[in-house]
Amino acid sequence: MQPRFRGQLRNLIYKNCTDSHLIKPVEIEISGGISLISNYHCSGKICGNGLCLITDNNYQCLCDETDFQGKNCQYEREINEFIFSGKQYLKYNFNNQILSLNEILTFQFKTNHYNGLLFQLIDSKLYIKLKQGQLIIEYRINNIWYETLTTKDIFLIDNQWHYVQIKRNFGQIIIIIDQYYLQLDNEIKTNQLWNFTQIFLGGNEDLNIQKFYGCLKDISIIFNENLTIYLNQSFSNFHEYNLGRYRNCKSLINPIQFLTSSSSSFISFELGNFSQQFNLSFRFETYSSDCILLYSQSNQDFLGLDLIDGFFSITININKKKQRQELFQQRCNDGQSHYIQLELRTYQNEWELNVTMDYRQNTRITIRNSSSKINVKFIENISFIEVWIRVRIRADRL
């Protein structure tokens, strides 16, 4: 009953869920006034591996998702992306020490991990980190640590590129993230003269620090408004460089995709025998309202995690005692990445289950008078509709 569109459409391209590249539909012409025919400017392979878009009187090549650049996508693109897999880091050594009163650090990053060290600018004094999905700045003045939260409501762990500029000037820190301008109210002015001798990227030499998992590119830093250093172009200054410089960071983590409601769309794996503690964490993304995320079954005991009308729920059946509970008053079928951490402990006659979502919401469930043990083989079946998931499992033998 809605009115139909009257007019013209052009430059129609789309991205399929199973293909990471933009696609141009096959040229067709259908009777009844509907047509999809390329302009003569885009005839042939004028754009090489790119997509040809027509303008009012010419053409334009779209090379964004290819390994080529130039007007006709004819030149091989120079990759300047540093790829970190959570283990490596880079140390950039300056030729001479730099004394600075103000700096401007600019970079782009891409990740879907909540925590990691992006930059250590001054040893034990200035760090830029991801913490629980937020970008923070840690700095120490007079032997006191301060933490500045920079991205209160900005979603940064979506595996997309984000532009960041951090400027220290007259003791004030100003941050631009994508189109957001943030001016931070610091209790302590950071107008000290800092001495730069080296910069760490993606981590540091501390084995206990959580290193960055993702990609960095277009990194530059300006000292005292007159000295600019482009870190991506100064490879001779790097130490312990063993990253994938010549690889494109199209998708560092390829999530498992379940795109069918068929019963054959699942993964199962055996976890083995565990004692009194079991920890499991995973991330998922979905638009489905009702789906099974994960379940474990042993004999008559059952533990399941699923979405019901978009709400995250848990189902427990232990010693023939059934319990289903909605854990968080928030719909999770919004297509964004949600992190779930599940910790299960057993005592003599009691189970304690602690579930955390996105590091913010927490629910604790206690099951008393239970003689069931977790020293059995768990079979985890993940079966969802249109869900992306990454699973990390840690089981501690006590």
Annotate the secondary structure layout.
Layout: E1 14-15, E2 22-23, E3 28-30, E4 34-36, E5 51-54, E6 59-62, E7 68-69, E8 75-76, E9 82-85, E10 90-100, E11 103-110, E12 116-122, E13 126-131, E14 134-141, E15 144-149, E16 162-169, E17 172-177, E18 180-183, E19 194-201, E20 213-223, E21 227-230, E22 238-239, E23 256-258, E24 267-273, E25 277-286, E26 291-298, E27 301-308, E28 311-318, E29 321-331, E30 338-346, E31 350-357, E32 361-368, E33 377-382, E34 387-396
Antiparallel strand pairs: 1-2, 3-4, 5-6, 7-8, 9-20, 10-19, 10-22, 11-16, 11-20, 12-13, 12-19, 13-14, 14-15, 16-17, 17-18, 20-21, 23-34, 24-33, 25-30, 25-34, 26-27, 26-33, 27-28, 28-29, 30-31, 31-32
Tally the structural domains.
3
Sheet/helix structural class: mainly beta
**For the CA atoms, what is the radius of gyration?**
26 Å
And the CATH topology of the largest domain? Jelly Rolls
Strand content: over 45%
User: Uncertain spans, ≥5 residues at pLDDT below 50?
Assistant: 372-398
User: Quick one: overall form?
Assistant: flat
- Named CATH architecture of the largest domain: Sandwich
Q: Quote the average pLDDT.
A: 76
- The number of strands is 34
Number of helices: 0
Highest CATH level, the class of the largest domain: Mainly Beta
Largest sheet data: 7 strands, antiparallel
